[in-house]
UniProtKB/TrEMBL annotation:
It comes from Dendronalium phyllosphericum CENA369. The lineage of its organism: Bacteria, Bacillati, Cyanobacteriota, Cyanophyceae, Nostocales. This is Uncharacterized protein.
Length: 170
């Protein structure tokens, strides 16, 4: 391979977290509309990162064959070497619910989402969607961890399943 893998520090509020990211898609600034709510899941705002895709072409092929999405936007591989991800919310727009899945590739990262009472609920499965307006983070681990986040626009049947689930929890 002629290109090198691009690895960046994952930042929250402009601060390094100790977590690293490998972007498989990169924001297309020519079509960027300026409002983060509307771009993460839409393919027209994202381009494949040729330099990183050389290493993860099979991952991209797998994602493209998922029947969960009408289209995909931002795709990130996140890895940490024994660091926690600080507790945070992805956004606070009350009128916007992000459509994405988070896939854990190992059980080393203790990922949690807090409910409205502040109780941590640890994710025990390998693939999850959650309301990214809720506080979430990971606990410190003695082992490295690896996960993938795929933002997109859900197929309507998958969206209905999630929304019905949400309604039973309200």
């Amino acid at each position: 391979m002629n290109s090198s893998l691009e690895i960046e520090n994952f930042k929250l509020n402009h601060r390094d977290t100790g977590v690293h990211k490998i972007q498989l898609t990169r924001r297309n600034n020519l079509t960027y509309c300026g409002d983060e709510r509307y771009i993460r899941g839409k393919s027209k705002y994202w381009s494949i990162c040729n330099e990183n895709v050389n290493y993860f072409s099979e991952t991209i092929s797998l994602i493209n064959n998922f029947s969960l999405f009408l289209e995909t936007g931002r795709i990130l591989i996140l890895y940490s070497t024994k660091h926690e991800t600080p507790e945070h919310v992805d956004h606070s727009y009350s009128d916007f619910l992000q459509e994405f899945i988070w896939i854990r590739l190992d059980n080393n990262k203790r990922f949690y989402v807090k409910d409205f009472l502040g109780v941590k609920h640890f994710v025990e499965c390998s693939c999850v969607w959650f309301d990214s307006r809720s506080l979430h983070g990971t606990e410190n681990s003695i082992f490295p961890s690896l996960s993938i986040r795929i933002d997109g626009i859900f197929e309507s049947s998958f969206r209905e399943v999630i929304y019905k689930y949400i309604q039973t929890k309200l």
